Amino acid sequence: IQVTCQDIIHTVCEYYGLSEKELLSKSKARFCSVPRKVAMYLCKEELKLSFLAIGKLFCRDHSSVISSVRSAKQTVSQQIFEDLRSRIHKKAQSSFSILATPHMHR
């Protein structure tokens, strides 16, 4: 099952109680910036995306992404990352199951 950027973004938004618009905003408020850093970190670790690709996804330059990923790794507990990884993989699995189910014909 392939995890997507959208799986990560949606799961992080649900986990932190944010909208996707808030997560992707330019806001530096902590309630937006910490989840954004977490999502960037997970995109890097789970999807092996380049800093440039993550920057495009989050409308940031690659140096901001490097700093955000480093910050998330240093300040966010590994338990939170593990919980989010579990949720992301469940979301990807359920999305796959829905897509793989044959459609009923009348």
Explain this structure to me?
- There is one protein chain.
- This protein has 106 residues and is mainly alpha-helical.
- Helix content is 75%, strand content 0%.
- The chain is built from six helices and no strands.
- It has helices at residues 5-16, 20-23, 30-47, 51-58, 62-75, 78-100.
- Helix 3 (30-47) crosses helix 5.
- The protein is globular and about 35 Å long.
- The model has no long low-confidence stretch (mean pLDDT 91).
Top keywords for this entry?
single chain, 106 residues, mainly alpha
Shape: globular
**Amino- and carboxy-terminal Cα gap:** 30 Å
Rg for CA atoms: 15 Å
| Unreliable spans | none
Beta-strand percentage range = under 5%
Structural class comes to: mainly alpha
Integer average pLDDT: 91
Largest sheet: none
**What is the string of SSEs from the N terminus onward?**
HHHHHH
Helix content: over 70%
What's the total number of strands? 0
Q: What is the overall number of helices?
A: 6
Oligomerization category of the chains in this entry: single chain
